[in-house]
Amino acid sequence: xxxxxxxxxxxxxxxxxxxxxxxxxxxxxxxxxxxxxxxxxxxxxxxxxxxxxxxxxxxxxxxxxxxxxxxxxxxxxxxxxxxxxxxxxxxxxxxxxxxxxxxxxxxxxxxxxxxxxxxxxxxxxxxxxxxxxxxxxxxxxxxxxxxxxxxxxxxxxxxxxxxxxxxxxxxxxxxxxxxxxxxxxxxxxxxxxxxxxxxxxxxxxxxxxxxxxxxxxxxxxxxxxxxxxxxxxxxxxxxxxxxxxxxxxxxxxxxxxxxxxxxxxxxxxxxxxxxxxxxx
Length: 280
Description:
By secondary structure, this protein is mainly α. 82% of the residues lie in helices and 0% in strands. Mean pLDDT is 85; it is low at 255-269 and 271-280.
């Protein structure tokens, strides 16, 4: 198993390493001011982001992103469960939800600045508003996809509504909820950067934009590299958490799709033995 994991990691790293090598070779021969070699980008990354800007820019960005993501997941699951249970409520709120869903979150930056000011509240609001929709829609689909026979049986045994929700409906909808939350995590990282482009005085997006305006190209690329590593690391942590929480679902689907058939341990009788058994 360990050898297989090492092989998978090696295969996954082949293409990124080749792309980096190809870019570095091209950048050194081209000599373009806007595309510095990897050595210069790496040196700037080590100087700026490994120590200096972590407390002043990276941690505030992560705090706002995690706060908006938590609000999106909590609000999306709560509202999605209500809409999944009640067709009447879903029909009544559908026009409003579709209107809000059609609004691009970056277009609401001026409104959020007027309502919440230039502090962290406006940025958290934008992140939560843009990331809530995958969680909400997947929760509605997951709740409506619960087996009706199991729900009817729970009602017939007079299981309370809150127990049906927490012990039957939400566990059955968890795989879809996690799928929506994983999509929402990527959206939250994108909106974290977008929210820091206007009305901000710190954050990764603010630093990248400031470097671009000041033609500090290595620092701009270093910030972009940090965002890519941040997205990769956040997705890896989320997948590990998802595997731990949904181990029952992964194990069940794995056995259902790839479990080999068990062969009988009883040996097949030879033709002579079978003939002798028939004679006796």
